[in-house]
Design a protein that fits this description.
Elements: E1 5-7, E2 14-16, E3 21-26, H1 30-33, H2 38-41, H3 53-66, E4 69-75, H4 86-89, E5 101-102, E6 105-106, E7 129-132, H5 143-149, E8 154-160, H6 162-175, E9 179-188, H7 192-207, E10 211-213, H8 215-223
Parallel strand pairs: 3-4, 3-8, 4-7, 8-9, 9-10
Antiparallel strand pairs: 1-2, 5-6
Helix pairs in contact: 3-8, 6-7
The structure holds dicarbonimidic diamide.
Dicarbonimidic diamide binds near residues 27, 32, 160 and 161.
Length: about 230
């Protein structure tokens, strides 16, 4: 009898079938992680997000080696701003808002250098990149169809920021019936207290939104053959 491999997680370990899992790296973009982008324009210290880069590299390598589906997302808008709600465009200081020029091109606009995923986590051929206009990766995108078409049941989620786009995506995924696992050290926030609380909220109440694990547990689980 083949026993499923287990991923150590809170509130409890969960079965992990690499063929039915996807690694979802949320918005690891220059606009959020580098100076001069959207994150800094909103008054944030972007260096607070850098701790997640190494762990994301580790899970990305492990997922690729294990044949786990890898999906990257990018938050951003069309150059004509037609997909950007006026309420979102009005946020931030005048002159440093979405669509305004910045050192990495127009802020949070598709095709601009700031919209790119950071080179350390660059997608490779065959890895879908989902462009999303909102915080959640399911909203106004083809993500759900991609996952259903591949029979994916479990989402292993890293990226930025923990309490905004990672959290929204996990909530959306949970409501759609996916097992959502936040990889704690692969996520980061401009606000360390929001990072901690965001993770706590996911695993509270018996895992109300999902599970919390980390890069060490996931890389070990993927390297371990399923128990016979
Ligand atoms: C934010 C995101 N924080 N990717 N976006 O505006 O979390």
């Amino acid at each position: 009898m083949i026993l499923p491999r287990l991923l150590p997680a809170e509130p409890e370990p969960l079965p992990l079938d690499p063929a039915r899992a996807a690694l979802l790296l949320i918005d690891m973009q220059r606009d959020f992680l580098e100076a001069g982008g959207f994150g800094e324009a909103l008054g944030n210290d972007v260096t607070r997000l850098h701790a997640a880069i190494g762990p994301c590299q580790a899970v990305l390598a492990a997922a690729r080696a294990a044949g786990v589906m890898v999906i990257h997302t990018r938050e951003g808008h069309r150059p004509d701003l037609s997909d950007a709600p006026p309420a979102k465009l009005a946020r931030g200081a005048p002159g440093r808002r979405i669509g305004d020029p910045g050192p990495m091109g127009r802020i949070l606009i598709q095709g601009e250098p700031g919209h790119d995923i950071i080179p350390a986590l660059a997608p490779i051929a065959g890895e879908p990149v989902v462009d999303k206009p909102g915080k959640g990766a399911f909203h106004a995108t083809g993500l759900e169809a991609m996952l259903r078409n591949r029979g994916i049941e479990t989402l292993l989620v890293g990226g930025v920021t923990t309490e905004v786009c990672v959290h929204t995506t996990i909530r959306e995924g949970n409501d759609r019936g996916f097992r959502c696992v936040a990889l704690a050290d692969c996520c980061a926030s401009y606000f360390p207290e929001f990072h901690a609380l965001g993770l706590a909220m996911i695993k509270a109440q018996g895992g109300i939104f999902g599970w919390v694990s980390d890069s060490v547990a996931l890389t070990a689980a993927l390297a371990t053959p399923a128990a016979a």
